[in-house]
């Protein structure tokens, strides 16, 4: 599984780049994404059945719809040994599920090859590419990812 981490300051175009790369890479294989979210959000509608299951004490709730499935399990970043450890566990799980490509938004301190947008300077290596959303050639980045040469 080829992994690309897209990092940069807020409003630098990370999501736009992830969208472009996901669209292009999905033509070649299966794509998974991970998004670092810095604040709690409620993804389960209060009062609806899956939320009621969770509030009643279920450790994990799985929802299966005609077109989507989802799993809600407590224990985000705060319950993990570290944010980096949780990311590594999630990447390993997605790898075992057979995805060809993984795009990560955020996690500037991870050990995966990074595409940096904007002028953020506190990014830890490995840095594979630095650009702005206006000048990035997502086709060239996607080609490097498909070839397995992104980050080399």
Short description:
Helix 1 packs across helix 4. Strand 3 and strand 4 form a beta hairpin.
Descriptive notes:
With 152 residues, this protein is an alpha/beta fold. It has a five-stranded parallel β-sheet, covered by helices on one side. A hairpin with a 4-residue loop joins strand 3 and strand 4. Helix 1 packs across helix 4. The radius of gyration is 17 Å and the shape is globular. The protein starts with a strand and ends in a 5-residue tail after the last helix. The mean pLDDT is 87.
Strand line-up of the largest beta sheet: 2-5-1-6-7
| Residue fraction in strands | 15-25%
H/E topology pattern: EHEHEEHEEEH
Rounded average pLDDT: 87
* C-alpha Rg (nearest Å): 17 Å
Structural class: alpha/beta
How far is it from the N-terminal to the C-terminal residue, by CA?
15 Å
Shape: globular
Enumerate the spans where pLDDT stays under 50 for 5 or more consecutive residues: none
Count of DSSP H/I helices: 4
What's the story with the biggest beta sheet? 5 strands, parallel
Percent helix among the residues?
25-40%
**Number of DSSP-assigned strands:** 7
SSE blueprint and pairings:
Blueprint: E1 2-7, H1 14-25, E2 31-35, H2 49-55, E3 61-64, E4 69-72, H3 83-96, E5 101-105, E6 114-117, E7 127-131, H4 138-147
Parallel strand pairs: 1-5, 1-6, 2-5, 6-7
Antiparallel strand pairs: 3-4
Helix pairs in contact: 1-4
Any descriptors?
28% helix; two-stranded antiparallel ribbon
